[in-house]
DNA sequence: GGAGTCTCCTTAACGTCGTTAAATAGAACG
DNA sequence: CGTTCTATTTAACGACGTTAAGGAGACTCC
């Protein structure tokens, strides 16, 4: 009895979250309203409070579904596989998953990592230490990648929401950028503020930094105190 | 006449924005309400619509004030100065400025860069090209730094808002992390998910990547196609 | 110096939101 | 049959952003 009833409720919850995610893609986070969601389910708004404590709990579950239910595809680093390519693939997959739902970055922003994400990070740390990383360096690398990912997708989706990328606003952008020659040249040569290239390149930068860090720390016994940025390079040029 | 009246309005706008920023620090973004702000100014809510088209315009102006009015301290890269240290200082200053106001990251997230920010970026691009960067690489570097900064501070402030960092929740965190040995070790050796070290280190990674990119591109005539991550390392095993 | 204009604010209200309280239809159970 | 539990409805509350209409006070101009 207990089992049957609980599973019924769970199924209902899943159905609600699923509908909410579909609705999110249709109308965006701003207009994702309990009343609207309820209507979509053929129900009155307060009915949702039987299944969820409040709206935040629904949103939390939505982020968990986005983050975990999709894309746990990454297996541990294979013997002899390039950790750079492997890590890059993970980050790109994360971006792909985030971009598979409208406003997902704003939705996810500031949510605690769920079980699935913790397990993934644990596996990454294991793999990276196996190729020689200090576990702290590995953790900080993952943190950097994750911050970059979050920040990038956030701006990317915000631009999309504003309709940037439409050529209608391109002319306007050119006028604004006119007084800034370098910026202007860069924009023209790139083709938009948030191109694929910007993501790939930023990702590469961090991985390159991690590679340098790995080399420096495995070169000496305890890899610490090498790559400091603050004033350790004598000014040259 | 015209001048006097316009400046009066401008002063009022400034006073409103200033009060709004103070109120933001007091009550947080969620409870920053037009009615509350108006009350703080000794005025009724609709009065604000004389000075601002809508709430978003007020928020936009708040972000512009945060981003520009504070911390335009960075001058162009001096002759012989280390560009790494110089850039690092800028990013750290940006973080300091963001963290000087509650919820500033969420406020800023998805706002178009204002005039001041454009000018700053232009100056950075100028300085970086002067030390040998291709303008596109410089732009992508700045983009990466900015995404990292935004993502990091967003999580950082979200944690703060949730009261993470309180030792009350530390025990709980330990229990959650128990099944993940690497994660656990990393956390213990770091001392929290969002430490100063994580920021400094992530920043260093990106700068290190930029340094490598600079070296690679100045080594050949046209620096392109060197640091690709996708599949250039043969997967084996 | 009175009429008109402009600035800045008020009062009143609208529609929507998240959320709560209370009542209720229907199934499950003794 | 009566009770209990599940899942929902109806009604309402307070707060939000926003709009409409008007009014008090200063400034301008003939």
From TrEMBL, chains A, B:
<dbReference type="InterPro" id="IPR050109">
    <property type="entry name" value="HTH-type_TetR-like_transc_reg"/>
</dbReference>
<keyword id="KW-0678">Repressor</keyword>
<dbReference type="InterPro" id="IPR004111">
    <property type="entry name" value="Repressor_TetR_C"/>
</dbReference>
<dbReference type="InterPro" id="IPR023772">
    <property type="entry name" value="DNA-bd_HTH_TetR-type_CS"/>
</dbReference>
<dbReference type="GO" id="GO:0046677">
    <property type="term" value="P:response to antibiotic"/>
</dbReference>
<keyword id="KW-0804">Transcription</keyword>
<dbReference type="InterPro" id="IPR001647">
    <property type="entry name" value="HTH_TetR"/>
</dbReference>
<feature type="DNA-binding region" description="H-T-H motif">
    <location>
        <begin position="33"/>
        <end position="52"/>
    </location>
</feature>
<feature type="region of interest" description="Disordered">
    <location>
        <begin position="217"/>
        <end position="237"/>
    </location>
</feature>
<dbReference type="GO" id="GO:0003700">
    <property type="term" value="F:DNA-binding transcription factor activity"/>
</dbReference>
<dbReference type="GO" id="GO:0000976">
    <property type="term" value="F:transcription cis-regulatory region binding"/>
</dbReference>
<dbReference type="Pfam" id="PF00440">
    <property type="entry name" value="TetR_N"/>
</dbReference>
<feature type="domain" description="HTH tetR-type">
    <location>
        <begin position="10"/>
        <end position="70"/>
    </location>
</feature>
<dbReference type="Pfam" id="PF02909">
    <property type="entry name" value="TetR_C_1"/>
</dbReference>
<dbReference type="InterPro" id="IPR009057">
    <property type="entry name" value="Homeodomain-like_sf"/>
</dbReference>
<dbReference type="InterPro" id="IPR003012">
    <property type="entry name" value="Tet_transcr_reg_TetR"/>
</dbReference>
<keyword id="KW-0238">DNA-binding</keyword>
<dbReference type="InterPro" id="IPR036271">
    <property type="entry name" value="Tet_transcr_reg_TetR-rel_C_sf"/>
</dbReference>
<protein>
    <submittedName>
        <fullName>TetR family transcriptional regulator</fullName>
    </submittedName>
</protein>
<keyword id="KW-0805">Transcription regulation</keyword>
<dbReference type="GO" id="GO:0045892">
    <property type="term" value="P:negative regulation of DNA-templated transcription"/>
</dbReference>
<feature type="compositionally biased region" description="Basic and acidic residues">
    <location>
        <begin position="221"/>
        <end position="237"/>
    </location>
</feature>
């Amino acid at each position: 009895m207990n089992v049957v009833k609980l599973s019924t409720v769970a199924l209902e919850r899943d159905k609600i979250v699923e509908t909410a995610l579909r609705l999110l893609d249709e109308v965006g986070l701003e207009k994702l309203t309990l009343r609207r969601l309820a209507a979509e389910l053929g129900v009155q708004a307060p009915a949702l409070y039987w299944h969820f404590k409040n709206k935040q709990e629904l949103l939390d579950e939505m982020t968990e579904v986005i983050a975990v239910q999709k894309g746990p595809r990454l297996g541990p680093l294979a013997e002899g596989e390039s950790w750079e390519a492997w890590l890059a693939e993970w980050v790109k997959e994360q971006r792909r998953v985030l971009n598979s739902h409208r406003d997902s970055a704003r939705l996810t922003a500031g949510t605690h990592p769920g079980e699935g994400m913790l397990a993934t990070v644990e596996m990454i740390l294991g793999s990276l230490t196996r190729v020689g990383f200090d576990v702290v360096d590995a953790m900080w690398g993952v943190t950097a990648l994750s911050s970059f990912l979050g920040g990038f997708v956030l701006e990317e989706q915000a631009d999309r929401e504003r309709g940037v990328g439409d050529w209608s606003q391109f002319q306007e952008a050119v006028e604004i950028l006119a007084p800034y020659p370098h910026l202007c040249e860069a924009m023209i040569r790139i083709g938009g503020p948030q191109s694929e290239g910007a993501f790939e390149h930023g990702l590469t930068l961090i991985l390159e930094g991690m590679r340098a860090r790995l080399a420096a720390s495995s070169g000496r016994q305890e890899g610490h105190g090498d790559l400091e940025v603050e004033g350790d390079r004598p000014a040259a040029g």
